[in-house]
Design goal:
Layout (H helix, E strand, L loop, with lengths): L7 E4 L7 E4 L1 H4 L2 H16 L5 E5 L2 H13 L3 E6 L7 E7 L4 E7 L8 E9 L3 H12 L3 E10 L5 H4 L5 E6 L1
Parallel strand pairs: 3-4, 3-7, 7-8, 8-9
Antiparallel strand pairs: 1-2, 4-6, 5-6
């Protein structure tokens, strides 16, 4: 399936010079959305995944249905201050901002094999921070999966010691 047909490019969003890859058209097409979940499930089947972690917020859109498909726990990785229980936190830099992510300290057991899901890999800061966060609480990151990868931004190189899978490359 040509997923690029379902990804809208929005010029100069969120700021001048950025070409935003909007996945909402893909989400509105059940066949395309199911295709993504099925491809992600196939990728996970070769890696003995025990936990699916989704990065706020678009990673939730793919991570939660993937976890249900795999019959595995779903763990949210959230922006700071959004989780109600004891958390582990990491601060990091984005393409054009700074941020922090948190995860519940009891969300993943020591040594559990985790896939981290997000919609897009750009410079790699968010996935790199998410990986560190999962490792901080004892999980083992076995792969990262994204719908879209912006190859020219080099995000994969920030994750060079870990596996990365993307369905669409720009």
């Amino acid at each position: 399936m040509d997923l690029k047909r379902y990804i809208r490019e929005v010029p100069d969003f969120p700021k001048q010079g950025i070409s935003f890859k909007d996945i909402t058209p893909l989400l509105s097409q059940p066949v395309a959305f199911q295709y993504v979940i099925d491809k992600f499930a196939e990728i996970c089947s070769y890696r003995n995944v025990e936990v699916v972690a989704g990065v706020e917020s678009r990673g939730f859109m793919f991570g939660a249905p993937l976890a249900a498909t795999l019959q595995k726990p779903f763990v949210p990785i959230r922006k700071a201050g959004k989780l109600p229980y004891t958390t582990s936190r990491i601060e990091y830099s984005l393409e054009y901002d700074h941020s922090a992510l948190e995860i519940h300290t009891d969300a993943i057991s020591l040594g559990e094999r985790v896939v981290i899901v997000d919609d897009l890999l750009a410079t790699g800061g968010t996935l790199q921070a998410s990986s560190k966060l999962v490792r901080q609480i004892g999980g083992k990151v076995v792969t990262h999966i994204v719908v879209v990868e912006l190859v020219g931004l080099g995000g994969r190189s920030r994750l060079s010691c870990e596996d990365v899978e993307s369905l669409v490359k720009y």
